[in-house]
Structure prediction request, 490 residues.
Amino acid sequence: MEMHTVKPREEAMEQIMAFISREGLSAGDRLPTERQMCQMWDLSRGTVRSALSRLEKMGVLQIRKGSGIYCCGSRFQRNLQGLSSYSGEARYQGKKLANVLIGFSGIESDKKLSRIFSATLGTPLWKLERIRNLDGVPVQIDTSYCSAERFPELDRFDFVKDSLYRVFEEEYHAIPTRGEETISVIKALDEAPLLMLQSGTPVFRIESTTFDQDGIILEYNYSVVRPDHVVLSSEMKIIVQQDEEE
Amino acid sequence: MSETISYRSPLYLQLREVIRRKIESGEYLPGTPIPSENALAEQYGIHRLSVRAAISALLYEGLLTSAQGKGVFVTMPKDERDLETVGGFRQTMEKLGHKTHTRIISKITRKAGEYYGDILKISPEACIYYIKRVCYSDGEPYSLEELYIPTDVVDNLFQIDLDLFSMYQIYGLNGITVTRVHQFLELDELDRSDANLLDIKDTPTVMKFRGVSYDQHGRAVEYARTYTRVDKCNFTVHYTRKED
Prediction:
């Protein structure tokens, strides 16, 4: 079989990424200099530079002028199918989560929310807005809506510390059971400053609806997520490939 | 946060939500033009630059599309693709009623090397196929795919017409059923040359999926990276509580 050599830039990228995982480098760890990399892998300066700039765009490393090349470490993985709480996932991945409350009030449903909750216009809802900080960086703006009739006095809980799902489950016996989540990409505009991003930076928008054990809607959530700090993950399982029979 | 737009919000954000609502409610129909910049500026008594900022945000989200000299149109609804059933590009898109084809940019046989050897759990000296191709839906570039497949998985892959048969069909013929894919979704910025392949003119930001596919024996059979245009589709996931 005829074997091809890989394009120099591809090879340089693979070498650098393999180096990071082999050496077990994590966030803030320093990589060899450009010159050292050229020698280590017998690559030209231009090739290494081009590979580094691509890897910087991919969020693998950061080039600080006059200082060196630093590893960005692994991003927070948000499992899309989990139904696990943010705090639980953060703890599991060794990241420190802090919530900042930016708004918690009773509102009346508008046309869109009424449709989502299958309720008439003006139905009382709770609206809870939080910023999620991971290791000190604001990574997500989270807006939750839930029924005020079903969850009376929800505002007696402190959602800076508490998880909404814990309160649903343990205080109101409403168990988040299944849901649906839609992911798209938008440009951050009014939400940019809260996430410390420049206006116009692309971000994930995640809209999700969660139902309880009786199939009644528990929560509608609207989130804007910084893609440079969070990676979304999902596990796909099969399914019979009936279409392949044709 | 479209929900928090109020009368105090900047005018362009308010107008963005007005246009969005008119699209959602069907007042502006898919395929039809929205009023001109001048008309909108006059109607709402705001500056043309605010109108332009509102429209540009919706162009980016893919709700609107602009045609040189013809104005700005409401796009057809985005494809909703779900993330939990495994299927190749072709199978998925054809189910949604689209015609597909692919164009190979590069296909070679190479050494796995340390990086891909580690991902695919094979020796760095082992051989892998590398395929880079553009996937089209109804004649328009939709995604760019890079596949890394150990040569042990499929014999003589390059003698098979990769446009005629999907990878899943080819795996099937080799007795392989893909049963599990663990994938990650990130945003990435394409190089200009790759952005051109997808016909992306301005910001080359794309959704990047990367993941390893495993067969019925738990063997890694493919590592794939797929770059998808952000204006073409939304992805949906259904989740259910696991009983432990």
In short: The first strand of chain A starts at residue 61 and ends at 64.
